[in-house]
Design brief:
Helices cover about 30% and strands about 35% of the residues. The chain is globular and about 70 Å long. Strands 1, 4, 5, 6, 7, 8, 9, 10 and 11 form a 9-stranded mixed beta sheet that branches. Strands 2-3 form a two-stranded antiparallel ribbon. β4 and β5 form a beta hairpin. With about 290 residues, it is of the alpha+beta class.
Length: about 290
């Protein structure tokens, strides 16, 4: 049997829907911790010995990828290879006063009203396309600018040339599950790479991608890293990929469930007992249908 078809049947959705990409041409609760990947805009300085003389230099270059596998287990790689199993999006904003990340549930797209962990939708950001930006009140504009679009990757990572924070070599990484919040400046690069695969009728789960980075100068004179993605080898789907994809989807569901519980808690006081009973009756009728 075609492995892709088997995965589709078992999930009850198309493989493209599960991964979270749109086919081309067509219309904090504790959960199992995932190693986290971050793109580094600034390198790590250290000292190396050159002919008996200590020289200060970047031991971990800017544009490297920081891989956090545990509190005391952090390593770095400059050009890891990834296989993307799922892509999700969410709105997020850092609340400096409360020292917490405000965020919506993760979704395949940002078209609808997404519940968030502060009891609103889209963190208060207006939904839909704004035709006349100039007519938007300045306070609303500031709110919109403060809320960031986030793309999150779930997949497997492999890397050679891995080092610690002092630049010392450590063991290479093979097919490690990971979670990666793509920096806003790199979302365009990700979209271009995924769309290029789509034009070839290839899903991200069906190939490897080699990650790299270009350093770009900002208007302030500082530089920041922008992710690059180059297609590697095509990958034949294996039966164990179904379990891996299930695990990622379960992780997403668990995180979203916690955010939804927070939304419910924030809205308990805003609805009367009588209104809540009416809503419950509607829900029960819909479920019965």
């Amino acid at each position: 049997m075609n492995t892709e078809l088997a995965i589709q049947n078992d999930l009850g959705m198309s493989l493209a829907e599960a991964v979270g990409v749109t086919p081309q041409g067509g219309g904090e609760r504790k959960s199992a911790a995932l190693p986290r990947v971050n793109l580094m805009h600034t390198g790590i300085m250290g000292e190396i010995d050159v002919n008996g003389k200590s020289i200060k230099t970047e031991v971990v270059p800017s544009g490297s990828y920081k891989i956090t596998r545990g509190e005391d287990d952090v390593v770095y790689a400059s050009s890891p290879t990834v296989r993307i199993f799922a892509i999700r999006q969410q709105w997020s904003k850092w609340d400096a006063k409360e020292e917490m990340m405000m965020k919506t549930v993760m979704s395949i797209d940002l078209k609808g009203d997404l519940k968030d962990n502060v009891g609103t939708f889209n963190l208060g950001r207006p939904s839909g396309y704004i035709e006349d930006w100039d007519s938007v009140p300045e306070k609303t504009k500031d709110l919109i600018r403060s809320i960031k679009r986030k793309k999150i990757l779930f997949g497997e990572l492999s890397a050679t040339g891995v080092t610690d924070e002092k630049g010392n070599p450590v063991d290479e990484i093979t097919a490690m599950p990971f979670y990666f919040e793509v920096p806003p400046s790199s979302i365009k690069s990700l979209d271009l790479a995924v769309n290029a695969l789509g034009r070839k009728n290839i899903l991200p789960i069906q190939c490897t991608l080699k990650l790299g980075a270009n350093l770009v100068n900002s208007n302030t004179g500082n530089s920041f890293a922008v992710m690059t993605l180059d297609m590697g080898d095509k990958v034949d789907l294996q039966p164990e990929d179904q379990d891996t994809l299930h695990n990622f989807l379960e992780y997403i569901t668990t995180v979203n469930s916690y955010i939804l519980e927070q939304w419910d808690e924030k809205n308990k006081e805003s609805i009367s007992d009588d209104d809540a009973a009416i809503v419950a009756e509607f829900v029960n009728v819909e479920e019965a249908d």
